[in-house]
Amino acid sequence: MLRVNKDKCPQDHKCPAINICPFKAITQLEFNLPEINIDLCKQCMKCIKFCPKKAIEVVK
Fold first, then answer.
1. Which of 8, 17, 30, 42 has CA atoms 20 to 30 A from the CA of 24?
2. What pairs with residue 56 in β-bridges?
3. pLDDT tens digits along 14-34
4. Can you give the CATH number for the domain in which 2 is found?
């Protein structure tokens, strides 16, 4: 399962990883912490590779 680490995510802009996810699994309300919908996420890891802050992480 993937999650966004609130301590690494600056939350001061629209998350660019939203546009990278081919499954539309990442959403964000205004500049709040982005959320990953585990029902839509296929764990392709594109968002993890893309995030410059390394804020998207795998959680066991």
1. 8
2. 4
3. 999 999 999 999 999 999 999
4. 3.30.70.20
